[in-house]
Amino acid sequence: MGKEIILSLKGLCKTFGPTKALDDVSFDIYRGEIRGLIGENGSGKSTAMSVVTGIHRKDGGEMVFNGEEYNPADLLSANQSGISIIMQEMNTIEGLTVSENIFLGHEKDYLVFGFKNMGMMNAAAKKLLEEYGLDEIDPSLDIGHFSFEERKMIELVKAVNFEPQLFIVDETTTALSQDGREKLYGIMKRLKEEGRSVVFISHDLPEVLQWCDTITVLRDGKFIDTVEKSSVDEDDLKRLMVGRELGEKYYREDYEKFEGSEKVLEIKSITIPGVLHDISLDLHRGEILGIGGLTDCGMHELGKVIYGAEKNYSGKVILSGKNVEITDIKQAIDLGIGYVSKNRDQEALMLYSSIRDNICLVCLDDLERGIHISDKTEKSFSEEFSKRLQVKMTSVEQFISDLSGGNKQKVSVAKWLAKGSDILILDCPTRGIDVKVKAAIYELMEELKERGKSIIMISEELLELIGMCDRIVILKHGAISGDVERKKDMSEEELIDYMI
Amino acid sequence: GGQQESGAAADDTVKIGVSIWGYTDALGTKVYNFLNYAADALDAEVEFVATGFDTEQTVASIENLVASGCDAIIVCNSSDGVMPKLIKICDDNGVYLAQFFRKIADPEVLKIAESSKYYIGTTHEDEISTGYNLGKALAEKGVKTTAIISWNHGDATAEDRYTGYKKAFAESGIKILAEQWEIMVAEESAKAAESFMAAYPNLESIVVTGGSGEPLAGAVSAVENRGMTGKVQIVSTDFIPTLREDLASGRISAMSGGHWTDPFFSFMLAYNTVVGGYDADGWEELLMDMVYVSSAEDYDNYDKWFNGDVPPYTTEEIQNLAYTFNKNHTIGDLKAAAAAISLEDVMKRHAGMIK
Amino acid sequence: MKELKYILLLICVPLAVYIVFSIMQPENFGSLNSILMLIQQCLLPSLAAFGFYFIITMGLFDFSIGANIVLSGIFGVMLSRSMGYAGLILGSLVCSAAIGFLNGIIYTRLRIPSIIVTVGLLMIYECFGKFLSSESVLSLDKSYRMLGSAPQNIIVSAAAMFVAIFLLKYSRIGTYIRAIGNNENIARNMGIKVDRYKVIGFLICGLFAGITAILTVSYSSSVAAQLRMSSMDRNFTPIMGCFVGLALKKYINPIIAIFIGEFTISLLINGLMTNGIDSTLQKVITGSFLLIIVSFTSYKNKARVVK
Amino acid sequence: MKELKYILLLICVPLAVYIVFSIMQPENFGSLNSILMLIQQCLLPSLAAFGFYFIITMGLFDFSIGANIVLSGIFGVMLSRSMGYAGLILGSLVCSAAIGFLNGIIYTRLRIPSIIVTVGLLMIYECFGKFLSSESVLSLDKSYRMLGSAPQNIIVSAAAMFVAIFLLKYSRIGTYIRAIGNNENIARNMGIKVDRYKVIGFLICGLFAGITAILTVSYSSSVAAQLRMSSMDRNFTPIMGCFVGLALKKYINPIIAIFIGEFTISLLINGLMTNGIDSTLQKVITGSFLLIIVSFTSYKNKARVVK
Ligand SMILES: Nc1ncnc2c1ncn2[C@@H]1O[C@H](COP(=O)(O)OP(=O)(O)OP(=O)(O)O)[C@@H](O)[C@H]1O
Ligand SMILES: Nc1ncnc2c1ncn2[C@@H]1O[C@H](COP(=O)(O)OP(=O)(O)OP(=O)(O)O)[C@@H](O)[C@H]1O
Ligand SMILES: [Mg+2]
Ligand SMILES: [Mg+2]
User: Fold this and answer.
1) Which residues contact C163 (CB under 8 A, 6 or more apart)?
2) How many whole angstroms from A43 Cα to the centroid of ligand 1?
3) Global model pTM greater than 0.80
4) What share of chain D is helix, strand, coil (3-state, %, to 5)?
5) Residues 6+ apart with CB under 8 A from A343
6) Residue pLDDT, tens place only, A51-103
7) Which residues of D fall within a CB distance of 8 Å from B192?
8) Which of A162, B253, C71, D118 has the fewest CB atoms within 10 Å of its CB?
9) In contact, D38 and D266? CB cutoff 8 Å
10) Ligand nearest to the Cα of A344, by number
11) Cβ contacts of residue C272 below 8 Å, gap of 6+?
């Protein structure tokens, strides 16, 4: 491989208020390679790439792209220079059609005497979508008609359509089904074969090792190393990311059969037309119940039903001890059920509010003295729990929006610890979280189990289900297709069989 | 004019449209009742449309009254500027148009009105004289300093009264210490009055030029709260429900108002023109003066003679002002009647009718 | 077919209003002539609403439209005295564009909520109108009133409507404005100069207010300064129309929906007037009627641009 | 220390205004007496602003505050005639609470933007006031005006201020309302009955308008119905005060900031008045002054509750 540099970052710096997101980061990306970019949550991966794509302005350092000094004013000009990105967050705009989204900022190719020729635009979009096997998407429809995954795929098509020299994929795979992932990998491979370059950000190390040629590691906003794929294994990468040996312990190590203790929750014939079909389950004291399956198998909705957040379903969720049916969120919380949403920023945390407010919000019953809630109590209360989860923060008055993903997740969990919930529903609790925080969350789950709390763990990652759960239920098309007890030598394949 | 073909002949009842700001408020109700009384006396029809002083609504109200078959319309227009449009509608449809409570100040609009065949005139109060008389009333009480609270700059009525006051003050050597305009509600007026008293300890009087009673009430209250009743004298225009008590206790020193008969004269102007009593080619300006009260006794008289069971004009008197009943009646008689109306006038005409 | 349902609604509601009043007042309501009059009457708020729609689509508000109409009208009438039609038209348009631009610039610079900016500025515009028109009422000379009557007013409005539809659906400006309305952050990430397009939105809104001003002074042949926020009253009908447009935008072209909405309002007001309903009560009934219509058609999801 | 900077600002701005006018008009401005008077004058808009703050924190608007004050005042005065103080106080409070409740219920039920709901309803409240008060001006009997003057008005206001601070910062209602303002969906997920607390917010806002109404009619001893949205004018000063509160909420207690803001406005208006500045110009100056203050203090990020 002729090692021609396509993009060179030199001494890049970027700060957000008190956070040094990028601290003198320098590395080169070569033409025709797939470069993995890994690091813990908040290590600066997204920031580095948003500086490269003009979304954020760098504070210092320089960038050289194709041999020329490069300083994009915004995403559009980065696109024009030949760099495109699929971002972590959703980046399509509802209210515009699919074709308007695809060509946003590039309308001038479709202007006829100042008129936007929608026919032409739709046809071009259609052709493009078909190229990527997305025949079923009608480009003249509002993009709001489509699912998260379809929209990600549309974004993908849009990003590749610019024929970029450098294509950046920021943590997209977790949002995609296997099929979508295959398409993405295919595109990455094709681009590489055409002599273009790809930067691939993911927390899924095996995936990174499978597809990347070289891997760059960031830690705390600093460049650590760039390594050849062939010279490292998963543990090496982890060590580079975390900066020390990880303890041996990761998942649970006990494999005794869970002795059915008292029932705490009964789920009876839950049905949501077209989503869930006649689901019945029991949860016991001290049990970790895993629910797995493909993203759209209905497991996320099931979590919401149990939490009382879903309204249109038939069947019952009954809290066994008190023998009451759970019908709404407030009641669920009061009865000791906590729910950690998969969509942290949209459903779980008030971003522009302090850690303290977020933790205390569900705990007012315990903090109220008469009708008075004192400042001091709130402060010490929230400090206690954020410290217990080792949230990296300046103080509990810090806004959630200033925390990195992993720390946000910790606050999201801390809230329920503080509330003292007996039953926790964790929906993808480790999504997009680095190994260190993951380990902390697993450890916490074990501790809770020992204290007699019950956990429903909903996850798309089979390994963590296998590693953590006493019992795993697999859903397929909204119905239970598999139900296995904890055992030492369970394999992923066994579960996948139930899923598809 | 072409009065004969314009409807009076078609069916025998004369129909007069009234475009008014509203007819459920205190003043509007009085107008509504009195015009209905007059219409009964004359066997005429009257139709009211409320506009809320909104320009577009005023235009629409005239369009609608024309459509509903009125022979003439009297209007309290929202502004001078809307008149050309109203006149045009009336000209196009052959319907007479008179104003009440208003005059046309804008010379250009006036030209248009003068050249119209169907614009027949207006009734309004002499506002300069109102201000002047009340200013003089203050001078008589020995006041040396004053402050003015008024509503909009640019409002013809407010400006005229202001002019009258200034003239009286200049003649009598009264000094205007401060003024505050655009006061429409009670507490704004109270704030202004309070501020005046705080800033100028030598303030002896406050003029509230008008504004339908609210600003007056605020100023009275502020003066009272400061314990300055009588030391700071208040004059204003437009009678309020508590006026009698206010005059008796000295909270208010002098007041003009009671001019709600104004639309009646425009109504008669319109009626007589429709039935062919007046020459429709020109236009007429009917001036009337307000009723002045400066003591509880004055007010009692007003209440008795204007608001009692016998209206200021009785059925016979109204018929006497109508060409259909009195072929000798001329526009000169109507003008004289408008100019004459006052407490004394009614007391004289109705002496013996009221106990 | 959801579309069909809403299109039917848009046809049936005015029809129902028409029929009800025709039965109540067969003689005085609903002649062809008066329908024509109503169409002309509803042009004015419709035009203002078209412009306002560009703002409200972005989740912003402009309460200075009424003040803009008044000030631009005053400006136009004053210039017409020396420059005739050119003065009237250019005067109004330039003034209204300047106001729109100023709103936009101040909003984007100061970063205060648009409601507050425009309410604050409207007071300034109102006062400015007062200073300009030292006479209490400015009347437009008889020889320049052509645009106030049919068919000229209809032609101008139809042209403006066409421009609004074009800008909103078939131009880059419209696409960007819709994008900003749906998600400002993403739009910014996509390289759209959000602030610039917000200013453009205000500018468009201002210009439509200017066109409204021209037709308003031509229709009522005069204009007077309004003070103490009384110009706010003029915002209400356009805003209501906009909400009809917003509510139905998924199903039919919002500009057309606005026009039909405004027509229905005119129909209703006229019917109430013919039935001798007090003007205050008219507003109450109209207001309630619209609240109900909007709430029926309102498309209840998180995408609502205005809380 | 950012806090310090903003606290200084809150002290220095009114001080500067005071000093400037004292130099310009040493005789007629700024005696201790008149400062006391100004403090009393700014109580009224402050009280209305305290209530409004609960609404605006949730990103909602209530334009019916002015109409609420008028209608509740009318109601209170009418009841005072038969029931004395009890009638005045209960009448105003019950009426204002009912209005607030109605606003909230209609807003949460219809799911139309709060601006539109409250503008629509304010017209209804205005008309209702008109129907109730057939006389043009209702005056409050002399024997029931005690609450209009010092120290009673100061005591009532201080108590109301205390309640506002407590509710906002140290009660569940305030916490929930702030959470809803931050992110409604998340608040809902945390088990907060969002609609219920929105109604409560409107109710609180209404009640504060009721207290304002009591003090207003006691102060000016009379009240009259206002029509054609003229009650809107009464909203402006409270809204401005609220924006001062919103702008500074990160640094000092917003309720206190509101009060100081309102005091500064009173000071400014009084100074301009004493200097014989035309009232139109007064409004312009006050408006611009506030826009500038708010934009200086405005904390510029995505957390803004109102666009
Ligand atoms: N817009 C921003 N404002 C403030 N801080 C930010 C912003 N964006 C990122 N940060 C902070 O900068 C640091 C680096 O964030 P970045 O998004 O680059 O991390 P990352 O490596 O992408 O992490 P993850 O794996 O979780 O995506 C974090 O501490 C984060 O909180
Ligand atoms: N102050 C801030 N303002 C805006 N965005 C911020 C801020 N702080 C953090 N962010 C967002 O959060 C991200 C930084 O956190 P991080 O990348 O750790 O997120 P994350 O949620 O862990 O991602 P994922 O969990 O999907 O890997 C940035 O990409 C940025 O978009
Ligand atoms: Mg990232
Ligand atoms: Mg991340």
Assistant:
1) none
2) 7
3) no
4) 80, 0, 20
5) none
6) 999 888 899 999 999 988 999 988 888 888 999 998 876 678 888 889 988 88
7) 273
8) A162
9) yes
10) 2
11) C281, C282, C285, C286
